[in-house]
Amino acid sequence: MTIDWAALGQVFGVTLVVTVGLVGLFTVGIVGTSRKPVREGEAAAATAPGAGARAGALAAFALCAAAVAYGIYLIVAA
């Protein structure tokens, strides 16, 4: 039995890049929906994210869901 080290390295590299990209995209979604912290001396209420930030966060979450659905499709498809 022989191991194709080049193919194994390619799989590792693609997996690493896709994983880091997906986690980064999810982080963008979380940041887009988070409230901004209150600075010292300002009113006590935290400010909600703007409409653009929410739309970007929604798009990031939609891309994450599409990537997960595509991964499941690749695994299940016969």
From TrEMBL:
Q: Which UniProt keywords apply?
A: Membrane, Transmembrane, Transmembrane helix
* TM regions (residue ranges): 12-34, 55-76
The molecule here is called: Secreted protein
Species for this entry: Streptomyces bugieae
